[in-house]
Amino acid sequence: MERFERTVASPVDLSDIELPPALEDKQEVRIWGTTEGQQKRRYFTAMETGDPILFYSDGEFFASGRVGATVQDVSLGEAIWGSDDSGYIYTVTDYEPISITPDELGDLLGYGDGWHPRGFVHVSERAINSLLTEYSSIEEAFQDLRSSEPTTGPSGPDDEGGSEEEGDDGRVHTEIQWYLVQLGQQHGYDVHVAINDKNRTYNGDRLGEDCLDKLVLPGFSDAVTNIIRYVDVIWLEGDAIVAMFEVESTTSIYSGILRMTDFVTRVPNFAVDMYIVAAEEDSDDVRKEMTRPTFETVLAPVEHSSLQFLSFGDVRKTYETVEAAGPLQDVF
């Protein structure tokens, strides 16, 4: 665990290490690796950027993240960990502590009683099929697993959420969601808040107060509705979606863009304004993610929808303007 704490739980400085081309633009990253072996090689080569990862030790899955870059380089492993054992190396993005038991995950994946992972493994096709009987996508299941962690997950009916124990990122996230809810309502829209955030509070107000209890979208499949019910804030006019907002107050904005592109893939002719809302200093990173080939090939052919960056400052300033002068003709 000492190695994990040093290079995954905390980002590691790579500035003094000779890096392979895939990592040349990285100065500080979370990074992990595994030893060589035929089966491990097969699993490693199948890894793709954005794939969910769960880390396991001492009877629980204690952290989650996503695959960043992958590189096979024994000398890099030796430079980072002082050993040439770890040649299959990958960076970790979207890192987040969690607490999930093997039984909980095993039930979801259709594994037998007493299952627990052994070493570097991937989820089998059979297990994925079992998971997809409960969820519309792997991404939805991953988000649900991450939100089950007590300090960050969905609030119960008697849990106010957004408490003093919530981290700075969580407080900013809730604040911006609250502004977006207020702006939607001030402009006459119905508003839907992500189902795992409805009971969070800001300034004593519950985010889901006076919002739609359920997302009902005639003509949309259950699979599509299941994707966007986790979108942070949605504005609707009747049963038509006007705008969708994903608030990203952490270092990764991958999941928000993924949810938006997953949506337009399923309804390519639907017209909607989509926004990734993040700190101004993250604008370059957000736009860089938006132009990834993975996303650009989905968004480029879409004529009627747009995916745009919106800063926290823009949201706060717009809210202040509306409070002072009333509704705007164009909100954003």
Describe the protein's architecture and organization.
This is Restriction endonuclease. It comes from Natronorubrum daqingense. Residues 144-169 are annotated as: Disordered. Residues 157-168 have a biased composition (Acidic residues). With 332 residues, this protein is α+β, with helices and mostly antiparallel strands. The chain has two domains: 2-147, Roll (ph1033 like fold), CATH 3.10.590; 168-325, no CATH class. It contains twelve helices and twelve strands. The protein has helices spanning 2-9, 38-46, 74-81, 102-109, 125-131, 138-147, 168-186, 222-228, 254-266, 283-290, 293-299, 312-325; strands at residues 12-13, 28-35, 52-57, 60-72, 86-100, 190-193, 201-202, 205-206, 233-237, 240-248, 273-278, 306-311. A five-stranded antiparallel beta sheet has the order 1-2-5-4-3, with helices on both faces. α7 (168-186) packs parallel to α12. It is globular, with a radius of gyration of 21 Å. The relative contact order is 0.09.
* Domain count: 2
Radius of gyration: 21 Å
| Proportion of residues in extended strands | 15-25%
Shape: globular
- Helix count equals 12
- Report the helical percentage: 25-40%
CA(first)-CA(last) distance: 47 Å
Number of strands: 12
Largest sheet: 5 strands, antiparallel
Q: Report the order of strands and helices.
A: HEEHEEHEHHHHEEEHEEHEHHEH
The overall pLDDT average reads 81
Strands ordered across the widest β-sheet? 1-2-5-4-3
List the uncertain runs: 149-167
**SS-based class:** alpha+beta
Biased composition (Acidic residues): 157-168
Region (Disordered): 144-169
Organism: Natronorubrum daqingense
Protein name: Restriction endonuclease
